[in-house]
Amino acid sequence: MINQDEREAGSVLKRGNRLVTLIVVGALAISGAMLLRSYVSAGYQPTPEFEGTQLNGETWRLVDHRGKGPLIVTFAATWCMPCRIELPELQRLYETYHERGLEIVVVGNEDQPTLRADPLFGATPVPVIHGGGKVHLDYQVDALPRTLVFAADGTLAGVYDGVSARGLDEIERFVRAMIEGAPAP
């Protein structure tokens, strides 16, 4: 029969193993994100062309915007709460920097009627397109929101998964530097 001390020692050991597992998984996730970011920043990640129909019926093509100024492409969904937090911030960036060359597009994973009917996605001045599953597969979108930042020369400069004040600040600093002609941070 197991006494109380042995039970408590086993419980502490299990908690310790869970903590170690969480630390290892967290470290791997952080190193994987840093590896992805440095891999992408170095310009090694190919960026497939794509197009989609905007909510106003016009066609939006990546090739038409690549290399003309900073470009932000974000993959989002109406049901995604982090996406709903990020979209107003991207809208603010769009309203602040669009006249100076910034382009932003939201690639939704729902159909046009769903995107159009949503009070947030349907009312934003930022172009929203239905990108379809192929675009999500081409860009390996496995989490929402995923935000891609392209430099003015068309190279992919950064990838941000999720939404955070730090990530949005980094994106804004990068956009500002590109527009003002300063070296990107």
Strand content: 15-25%
Instruction: Classify the helix fraction into a percent range.
Output: 40-55%
Separation, N- and C-terminal Cα atoms = 63 Å
Mean pLDDT: 77
Structural class label: alpha/beta
CATH topology name of the largest domain: Glutaredoxin
Tally the helices: 5
CATH class of the largest domain: Alpha Beta
CATH superfamily (homologous) name of the largest domain:
Glutaredoxin
Runs in which pLDDT lies below 50 for 5 or more consecutive residues are: 19-44
Name of the CATH architecture of the largest domain: 3-Layer(aba) Sandwich
Give a brief description.
The protein has 5 helices and 7 strands; from the N terminus they run H-E-E-E-H-E-H-E-H-E-E-H. The protein has helices spanning about 5-40, 80-95, 110-115, 130-140, 165-180, and strands spanning about 50-55, 60, 70-75, 105-110, 130, 145-150, 155-160. A 7-stranded mixed beta sheet has the order 2-1-5-4-3-6-7, with helices on both faces.
Q: What can you see in these coordinates?
A:
The chain is of the alpha/beta class and 185 residues long. The chain has two domains: 45 residues; 135 residues, Glutaredoxin. Helix content is 45%, strand content 18%. It contains five helices and seven strands; from the N terminus they run αβββαβαβαββα. A seven-stranded mixed β-sheet has the order 2-1-5-4-3-6-7, with helices on both faces. About 14% of the residues have low confidence.
